[in-house]
Write a structure and sequence with these properties.
This protein is mainly alpha-helical and 239 residues long. It has 2 domains: 179 residues, Growth Hormone, Chain: A (Up-down Bundle), CATH 1.20.1250.20; 46 residues. Helix 1 packs across helix 7, helix 4 runs antiparallel to helix 8 and helix 10 packs across helix 11. It starts with 15 loop residues before the first helix and ends with a helix.
């Protein structure tokens, strides 16, 4: 474990940059909660009402994606990094929202639904890992609660507004799903750094040091965190 630096209470070491990154990353959980609520509304009745075969097929594909998508998210985050894997979540949301909103038939609707479901899986699988690896251990307990809080807010927001008619649901999904997802993806692309933990495992120590410097209140703290990350990476490789 890292030793606390004298003179700095735990929460005082939470830099604005670290807090901003945690909030931006957790907004994927907000969208996930919002989309999860939308996926539970009556929009699917447009294409599956009173058709047991379509419902069974839909549930089968949904169950398969619920199993495979988190595995894919975890594997991909190890291969290409936490940052780019996290960016895929709002991208899936934007395409999924657009496809389901404009779906002319059952097949297209299910395709859009599965895209949204994949976005939810990526948000849930990667956000926690990213925030954990980005934040100091003495503020991690606080920052890692953000995804659950933002998820709950998103789900609550969706269920607060009544679903008046199918047409209005489709229009609201197009506006509330696609546009914010695109904006979030751009904000994350130009703001979020890569996880220092992942950078160290790839031997990119200079990049990891830059990220740690931006997320620490002093160079001493950054060096301590880098040493801890390197030790953890070496232990994992030797184990």
């Amino acid at each position: 474990m890292l030793h606390k630096i004298p003179g700095f209470p735990g929460m005082a070491r939470l830099t604005k940059f670290t807090l901003t990154c945690a909030i931006l990353a957790s907004l994927t959980s907000f969208l996930a909660g919002l989309q999860y609520g939308e996926l539970g509304n009556e929009t699917g009745d447009l294409f599956m009402k009173n058709n047991e075969r379509k419902i069974e097929t839909f549930l089968t594909f949904s169950s398969i994606f619920h199993f495979l998508a988190p595995l894919a998210a975890g594997t991909l985050s190890d291969l290409i990094g936490r940052r780019y894997s996290l960016l895929l979540s709002p991208i899936f949301f934007s395409f999924g929202s657009l496809v389901t909103s404009l779906a002319p038939n059952y097949v297209v609707f299910v395709t859009g639904y599965l895209l949204l479901d994949t976005g939810i899986s990526f948000a849930l699988a990667v956000t926690h890992v990213y925030i954990t690896e980005l934040s100091p251990d003495w503020t991690r307990w606080f920052l890692t609660t953000f995804p659950e809080v933002f998820w709950s807010i998103g789900y609550l927001v969706d269920n607060t507004f009544p679903h008046i008619s199918s047409k209005k649901i489709l229009i609201s999904r197009l506006g509330l799903g696609t546009i914010p997802s695109i904006l979030l993806a751009f904000a994350m692309l130009f703001t979020l750094p890569e996880s220092p933990g992942w950078l160290v495992t790839r031997g990119k120590l200079s990049e990891a040091t830059r990220v740690l410097t931006k997320t620490s209140v002093s160079e001493e703290e950054a060096k301590l965190r880098l040493g801890e990350i390197k030790l953890a990476a070496e232990s994992k490789q030797s184990g």
